[in-house]
Design a protein that fits this description.
The protein is α+β, with helices and mostly antiparallel strands. Helices cover 22% and strands 42% of the residues.
């Protein structure tokens, strides 16, 4: 009986081993096979270098505009103002119809602050991986928001990059992949490969975290910026930001990104 149990154990282990090999082969195949020739990868690296250089002298900003928050059931439209300091300081204020403050949200490096002015609800969280999900219902990193609002594009960690023609035939897609987790980001380019109009961010499971659409480019003090930013996911949750006024390299101080509890002033 002991011999029979041992044989069963060996076969189970062999089966598990074969399954792991097949799974690893599948992952390896998905992330490596079918890639374009080295010229495509060289071109992708050149474009990534250009993306990293764009607006690299734009360090601080302030803006005024309108936001729309929307899901499958509800929508909310409001005036808003924001400011940021590259790479990881960002604050946004949302106002009511009469101009009264409704919500203040700020991220200062590892600190996240949220204040609801209507009920005095206050949150301060020390979170190195903080996102704007409390406000946007989307897992958008603070650094990503700052990148988009300075006309840049966040670039995920990757082992391989390449370019392929869009399935719709409208431009090209620059794809970033990790060896084991697969696609981490897709950057959509126009036919000339000079303008980025959409970005998609993926999680470690391969599911879409969110997409960003960059619409109607404008120029402010020599910097090229989107006048509309639309963030969305597959669940119908959408955040739209319209930029009415934008101030580049305007003075800001670290204290501006700290929100204190109601009744506390410093």
């Amino acid at each position: 009986m002991a011999t029979i149990r041992l044989k069963k154990l060996v076969f189970c282990l062999l089966g598990l081993f074969c399954f792991m090999i097949q799974s690893c082969s599948s992952i390896h195949k998905n992330s490596i096979s079918g890639l374009p020739d080295p010229a495509s990868q060289d071109e992708s690296r050149s474009i990534l270098a250009s993306i990293r250089e764009k607006n690299n002298s734009l360090r601080t900003f302030k803006g005024i505009g309108k936001i729309e928050l929307k899901n499958k059931k509800d929508s909310f439209i409001s005036r808003t103002a924001w400011m940021g300091s590259y790479p990881d300081r960002f604050r946004i204020e949302i106002f009511g119809i009469a101009g009264q403050p409704l919500i203040s949200l700020s991220a200062d490096q590892d600190n996240l602050f949220l204040l609801s002015h209507t009920d005095s609800n206050y949150i301060h969280r020390d979170d190195p991986a903080s996102t704007l999900e409390e406000l946007l219902s989307l897992p958008v990193k603070v650094e990503d928001a700052v990148e988009f609002l300075t006309g840049r594009i966040p670039i995920r960690e990757h082992a391989t990059s390449y370019i392929e023609k869009s399935d719709s035939g409208d431009g090209f897609i620059l794809i970033l992949e990790e060896n084991w987790t697969g696609i981490t980001e897709k950057i959509y380019l126009d036919e000339k490969k000079t303008r980025i109009y959409k970005v998609e961010m993926f999680g470690i499971t391969g599911a879409l975290n969110y997409r960003a659409e960059l619409l109607d480019e404008i120029q402010v003090d020599g910097f090229r910026l989107p006048s509309h930013l639309v963030l969305s996911n597959e669940n119908g949750e959408t955040f739209k930001l319209r930029i009415d006024r934008y101030f580049a390299n305007t003075p800001v101080t670290p204290s501006m990104f700290t929100i204190h509890p109601p009744g506390v002033t410093k």
